[in-house]
């Protein structure tokens, strides 16, 4: 399928970039997406390389590729120190520092959904407790909205509709999620000296319902002088950000 797609595109192929759910292992080229159990240790880079012999293949996490895509052609143009976030069924992220993707030792830098914001909070699928993902992801926001009978059928869009209609419980859920995201962004901002955070994903489509309380909470948390210019903006590339970032990753290899 990969070879066929490249053939349709035409022209010489200079490189292939892969944006994969993680964790990933840059050294072995294997991926172990938490939400795809059958892919534990899957040799993704080697499988792709076999389809395009002689072409360099570079593997990256989907979060860092999203950040790189937004930095290159999206809302992050011009920023030097950027955090990209995808807030949807989970909370993923990636970092672009001094204009370059920050991959980390194993390729997993930027897993900000597992920054702990409530040490006594709910258990997380990662095995930890109180991660921002347990509070701010779409399912977590919906789960905190109301009675169990209501929660089961309530998704992020329905929650946004309820909040937009003034439902006080739904509004409270958004404020709680925004506060958790703000605490995490302020912490990452202090560690990495960020100038911008770009947020995409389904939850981010709720617009002001998320961004207004998030920016207000961030102003409370980011009090150090060097964080005064830290901005939070919605992503521009939508679902294409990871693909754009993977292409950029291949180009700068």
- What is the global morphology? globular
Radius of gyration, in Å, reads 19 Å
Q: Order of strands in the sheet with the most strands?
A: 7-6-5-8-9
Oligomer: single chain
Instruction: Please give the number of β-strands.
Output: 9
Largest sheet, described in full?
Answer: 5 strands, mixed
Helix content: 25-40%
Can you tell me the CATH architecture? 2-Layer Sandwich
InterPro entries: ATPase_NBD (IPR043129), ROK (IPR000600), ROK_cs (IPR049874)
Pfam families: ROK
Protein name: Sugar kinase
GO molecular function, one term: kinase activity
Task: Please characterize this protein's 3D structure.
By secondary structure, the chain is an alpha/beta fold. The protein has one domain (2-251): 2-Layer Sandwich (Nucleotidyltransferase, domain 5). It is 40% helix and 15% strand. It is built from ten helices and nine strands. Helix 8 (168-192) crosses helix 9 (208-221). It is globular, with a radius of gyration of 19 Å. The two termini are 24 Å apart. The model is unreliable at 146-153 (pLDDT under 50). This is Sugar kinase. GO terms for molecular function: kinase activity. It comes from Mycobacterium tuberculosis CAS/NITR204.
Task: Provide a concise account of the structure shown.
This is Sugar kinase. The chain has 253 residues and is α/β, with parallel strands linked by helices.
Features:
Nucleotidyltransferase, domain 5; 9 strands; five-stranded mixed beta sheet; 10 helices; alpha/beta; two-stranded parallel sheet; 253 residues
């Amino acid at each position: 399928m990969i070879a066929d797609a490249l053939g349709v595109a035409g022209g010489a192929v200079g490189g292939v970039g892969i944006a994969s759910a993680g964790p990933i292992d840059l050294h072995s080229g294997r991926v172990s997406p938490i939400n795809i159990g059958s892919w534990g240790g899957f040799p993704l880079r080697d499988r792709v390389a076999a389809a395009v012999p002689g072409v360099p293949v570079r593997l990256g996490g989907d979060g860092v590729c999203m950040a790189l895509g937004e930095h290159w052609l999206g809302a992050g143009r011009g920023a030097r120190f950027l955090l990209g976030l995808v807030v949807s069924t989970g909370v993923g992220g990636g970092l672009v520092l001094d204009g370059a993707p920050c991959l980390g030792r194993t390729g997993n830098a930027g897993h900000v959904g597992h920054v702990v914001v409530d040490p006594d909070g709910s258990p997380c699928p990662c095995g930890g407790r109180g991660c921002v993902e347990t509070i701010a992801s779409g399912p977590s926001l919906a789960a905190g909205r109301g009675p169990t009978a209501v929660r089961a059928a309530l998704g992020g869009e329905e929650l946004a509709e309820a909040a937009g209609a003034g439902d006080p419980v739904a509004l409270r859920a958004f404020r709680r999620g925004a506060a958790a995201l703000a605490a995490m962004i302020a912490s990452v901002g202090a560690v990495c000296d960020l100038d911008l955070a770009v947020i995409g994903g389904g939850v981010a489509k709720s617009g002001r319902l998320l961004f207004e309380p998030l920016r207000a909470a961030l102003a409370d948390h980011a009090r150090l002088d060097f964080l005064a210019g830290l901005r939070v903006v919605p992503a521009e590339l939508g679902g294409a950000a990871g693909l754009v970032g993977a292409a950029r990753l291949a180009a700068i290899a």
